[in-house]
């Protein structure tokens, strides 16, 4: 019997009460667990006093220490489990579930309610099923009638008789309806029509069938998602992370995952999605942060810095050189060259207090004496180990030098005790020997650090030498030499271009046997179209055990479209041709109103492929101004006009220089915030930011800054990205005539003033 709304509301009330009761019970257990942990930690010292007088006492003490450590570990694990349950229960408060399915299996009728996490009553009966559970896939994929769903070891066939959707707010059913679709239009319209917020929300209640395919894919080595602006690809990927954590709980945790995000603003924007689903956030990093951390001490050019520089000047020769250095073939050439067992390495002296401690000739002799049939990285590592052994030997020999003994005699009591620490040595001669070696070890710390950190071999010089010996025929000698000179000048100034940073990092990793990470199992790259091809080659090399999920939109390729002409999606698939790849295309756009989507896609060569969601709104406005002063004076008025129906309004520019200029002109007249690549959080009021910082974000309303005659056909990506940041309202401005790019847009799609 199909339940009425009143009957469904009665069930919501019952479930809400159980959630509240379990929250109180869980919080009590958390408090008790914290007290227990504190008690164990307090008694830890008393129970583990070290007695070293007798062997039996030492053994007993060691056993006691291990027992106490185990007790603390168990107590902390108990707290972790309880805190996880607490987060899950809180996520269910107010809106315990959003879906319901009824089915017949083996002649028996069954009912399942679907929510963000599982809920059981005190009898262990399921009140809510997690949206990631196998049975829940019927809610997203199944249509009424005979359907199948996958279990870990078998496929089940059932009769799906009902699919019901709920909109529950504050434990009250606002509306509910039965449907044969994935998500009914009314629920989706309600979700998409809301205002933008500081944080992205999870979309588990509105997941579409094509998004569900992305989320539940567990077989692909490389999943590539090409999605139109506003198609929900980022949201789907975050739900995918949550699904993978659920699906592979025993083998996978958030520490085994990395997300490459476009900027810090975006990282903050998506930071609440996984916690809202009861999962911990994975590690997030931008490309320039990732490279800078690995090439410590050198400032790596960011994608933003390169974009700003390209806007100012991008000669054809620079394009050719960049395309060559970022190609798959050049990456593989570098990899092969520096993997050669017979490669000659040029070492450098290791200094101590301005004097040579280990000469480059000595280091070279160690390296050359090793078996050349061994991989070059192995020989390098053995050379390093030999240097460390020789350093330890030198410490023992030099410890009895007169200058060391003089230093020991002049130690103050505090330093003397710190050197001895817990080492109680009765024999005075042995005590002095111990102190001398420990003192010298500290004094020689810089030498050890130099060896450990590979300061005796320079990957930057090795890279420059490789470039000198491998000039391509397609590029002139003069241009190639100027590029190498510029590289060397940059290194002297402790900075490096993005193209070079990737290859230097590869060279360093190959020779020093560092950088390879076998623990990472899943890598996610958002805005994949922004990354040079060589980046994906490097990630594939550096994370050999990882699967990849790559998402983006090659119609929003604002960073590379100015210098890359080939089909980069084909290039990307070619990189991973040795792996099981799956390409999914999302053409349905949800973010913007139909008016904005139709306007934006009209400038694209293949814009007709993008499907518009039927959410009506205001026509796009084109506003033309006679001069810059008139335009600047009109911006506050435009802002106030937009705030009648919108909360967040952004002025989007092409460059940071332009954004700063507008900010300086407006800051005395209106509450305005300039957003830079250092911002981690969006502020309230009017925002001004360059378009590359708005990638992945959305705003209620957007003012597209000065889309004039300077915008050419090769900047369609920039314009499309600007237009599609707007959810509800878009105003396109220009000082003087609009860009001819807009001429191809049907005049019925906008109003001009």
Notes on the protein architecture:
- By secondary structure, the protein is of the alpha/beta class.
- It is built from 27 helices and 26 strands.
- The strands form six sheets. Strands 1, 2, 3, 4, 5, 6 and 7 form a seven-stranded mixed sheet that branches. The chain has a seven-stranded parallel sheet with strand order 22-23-21-24-25-20-26, sandwiched between helices. A six-stranded parallel sheet has the order 10-9-15-16-8-17.
- α1 (5-47) runs antiparallel to α2.
Can you give the mean pLDDT? 89
Helix/strand class: alpha/beta
Radius of gyration: 32 Å
Shape: globular
The stretches of 5 or more residues where confidence is low (pLDDT under 50) are: 48-59
Q: Helix content range of the residues, please?
A: 40-55%
Note the total helix count. Answer: 27
Largest sheet: 7 strands, mixed
Quote the distance from N terminus to C terminus: 59 Å
Q: What is the tally of beta strands? A: 26
Strand content: 15-25%
What's the SSE blueprint?
Layout: H1 5-47, H2 55-92, E1 99-105, E2 108-115, E3 119-120, E4 126-130, H3 137-141, E5 145-150, E6 155-169, E7 172-178, H4 185-192, H5 209-215, E8 222-227, H6 233-247, E9 257-260, H7 264-269, H8 273-276, E10 283-285, H9 287-294, E11 299-300, H10 303-312, H11 316-325, H12 328-337, E12 350-352, E13 355-358, H13 360-368, H14 376-398, H15 402-409, H16 413-420, H17 428-443, H18 445-452, H19 459-469, H20 477-492, E14 495-496, H21 498-512, E15 522-525, H22 533-542, E16 547-552, H23 568-575, E17 581-586, E18 588-589, H24 594-601, E19 611-612, E20 620-625, H25 628-642, E21 649-653, H26 656-666, E22 672-674, E23 686-690, E24 699-704, H27 716-723, E25 726-735, E26 750-752
Parallel strand pairs: 2-4, 8-16, 8-17, 9-10, 9-15, 11-14, 15-16, 18-19, 20-25, 20-26, 21-23, 21-24, 22-23, 24-25
Antiparallel strand pairs: 1-2, 1-6, 3-4, 5-6, 6-7, 12-13
């Amino acid at each position: 019997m199909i339940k009425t709304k009143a009957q469904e509301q009665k069930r919501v009330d019952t479930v809400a009460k159980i959630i509240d009761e379990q929250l109180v019970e869980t919080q009590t257990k958390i408090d008790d667990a914290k007290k227990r942990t504190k008690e164990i930690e307090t008694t830890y010292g008393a129970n583990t006093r070290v007695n070293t007088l007798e062997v039996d006492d030492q053994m007993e003490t060691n056993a006691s220490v291990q027992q106490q450590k185990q007790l603390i570990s168990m107590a902390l694990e108990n707290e972790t489990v309880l805190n996880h349950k607490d987060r899950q229960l809180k996520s269910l408060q107010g809106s315990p579930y959003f879906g319901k399915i009824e089915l017949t299996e083996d002649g028996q009728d069954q009912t399942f309610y679907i929510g963000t996490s599982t809920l059981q009553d005190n009898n262990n009966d399921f009140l809510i099923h997690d949206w990631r559970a196998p049975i829940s896939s019927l809610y997203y994929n199944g249509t009424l009638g005979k359907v199948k769903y996958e279990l870990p070891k078998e496929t089940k066939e059932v009769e799906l008789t009902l699919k019901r959707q709920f909109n529950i707010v504050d434990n009250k059913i606002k509306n509910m309806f039965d449907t044969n679709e994935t998500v009914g239009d009314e629920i989706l319209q309600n979700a998409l029509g809301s205002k933008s917020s500081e944080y992205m929300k999870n979309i588990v209640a509105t997941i579409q069938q094509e998004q569900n395919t992305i989320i539940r894919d567990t077989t692909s080595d490389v999943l590539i998602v090409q999605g139109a602006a506003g198609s929900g690809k980022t949201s789907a990927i975050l739900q995918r992370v949550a699904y993978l954590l659920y699906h592979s709980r025993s083998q996978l945790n958030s520490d085994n995952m990395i997300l490459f995000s476009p900027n810090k603003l975006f990282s903050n924007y998506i930071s609440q999605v996984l916690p809202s689903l009861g999962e911990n956030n994975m590690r997030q990093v931008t490309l320039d942060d990732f490279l800078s951390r690995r090439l410590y001490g050198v400032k790596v050019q960011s994608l933003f810095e390169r974009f700003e520089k390209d806007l100012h000047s991008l000669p054809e020769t620079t394009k050719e050189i960049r395309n060559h250095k970022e190609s798959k073939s050049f990456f593989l050439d570098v990899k092969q060259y520096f993997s050669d067992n017979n490669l000659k390495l040029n070492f450098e002296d290791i200094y101590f207090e301005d004097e040579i401690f280990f000469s480059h000739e000595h280091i070279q002799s160690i390296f050359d004496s090793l078996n050349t049939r061994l991989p070059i990285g192995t020989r390098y590592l053995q050379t390093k180990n030999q240097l460390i052994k020789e350093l330890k030997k030198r410490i023992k020999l030099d410890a009895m030098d007169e200058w060391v003994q003089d230093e020991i005699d002049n130690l103050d009591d505090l330093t003397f005790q710190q050197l001895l620490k817990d080492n109680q040595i009765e024999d005075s001669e042995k005590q002095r020997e111990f102190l001398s070696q420990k003192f010298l070890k500290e004094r020689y710390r810089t030498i050890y650090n130099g060896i450990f950190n590979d300061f005796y071999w320079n990957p930057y010089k090795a890279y420059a030498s490789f470039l000198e010996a491998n000039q391509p025929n397609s590029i002139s000698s003069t241009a190639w030499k100027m590029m190498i000179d510029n590289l060397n000048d940059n290194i002297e100034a402790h900075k490096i271009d993005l193209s070079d940073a990737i290859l230097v990092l590869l060279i360093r990793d190959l020779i020093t046997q560092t950088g390879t990470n076998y623990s990472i199992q899943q890598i996610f790259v958002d805005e994949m179209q922004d990354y040079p091809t060589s980046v994906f080659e490097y990630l594939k090399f550096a994370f050999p055990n990882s699967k990849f999920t790559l998402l983006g939109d090659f119609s929003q390729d604002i960073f590379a479209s100015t210098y890359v002409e080939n089909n980069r999606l084909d290039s990307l698939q070619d990189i991973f041709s040795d792996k099981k790849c799956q390409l999914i295309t999302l053409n349905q756009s949800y973010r913007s109103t139909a008016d904005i989507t139709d306007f934006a896609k009209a400038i694209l060569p293949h814009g007709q492929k993008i499907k518009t969601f039927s959410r009506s709104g205001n026509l796009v406005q084109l506003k033309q101004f006679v001069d810059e002063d008139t335009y600047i004076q009109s911006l506050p008025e435009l802002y106030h006009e937009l705030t009648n129906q919108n909360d967040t309004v952004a002025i989007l520019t092409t460059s940071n220089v332009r954004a700063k200029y507008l900010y300086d002109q407006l800051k005395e007249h209106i509450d305005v915030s300039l957003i830079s690549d250092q911002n981690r959080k969006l502020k309230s009021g009017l925002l001004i930011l360059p378009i590359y910082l708005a990638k992945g974000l959305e705003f209620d309303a957007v003012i597209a800054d000065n889309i004039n005659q300077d915008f050419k056909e090769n900047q369609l990506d920039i314009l499309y990205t600007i237009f599609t940041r707007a959810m509800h309202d878009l105003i396109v401005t220009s000082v003087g005539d609009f860009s001819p790019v807009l001429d191809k847009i049907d005049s019925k799609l906008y109003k001009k003033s």
